[in-house]
Amino acid sequence: MSLYLLENYNLNFELHVYDFDHTLYDPDNESWNENIVNSLEKSLKDKKTITILCTARPKNKDLVNKTNELLRKKEISLEDF
Which residues in 42-77 are b (16+ Cβ under 10 Å) and which e? Predict the structure, then answer.
């Protein structure tokens, strides 16, 4: 999409990108960064924010399920993204 096309749209939103391992969640200590979790929760609730969760975890069924299980402990789901 060209810059000219983008100028014709009212793009009134924010983009928030969160990293999972060692930012949002510390797998070494099995702990959450509550400041980042709070920020993520606000982003997900804001209708004018597009929220993206990044992870370098391999896309295998067990690891995806484990990631989703961890997120659900914070009342978040992969489906929220």
Answer: ebbeeeeeebebebeeeeeeeeeeebeebbeeeebe
Q: Mean pLDDT over all residues of the chain?
A: 89
The full length of the chain comes to 81
Query: Alpha-carbon distance 14 to 55, whole Å?
Result: 20
List the end-to-end C-alpha distance of the chain, in Å, as a whole number: 23
CA distance 17 to 73: 20
State how far the Cα of 76 lies from the Cα of 79, in Å rounded to an integer. 8
pLDDT in tens, 32-59: 999 999 999 999 999 999 999 999 888 8
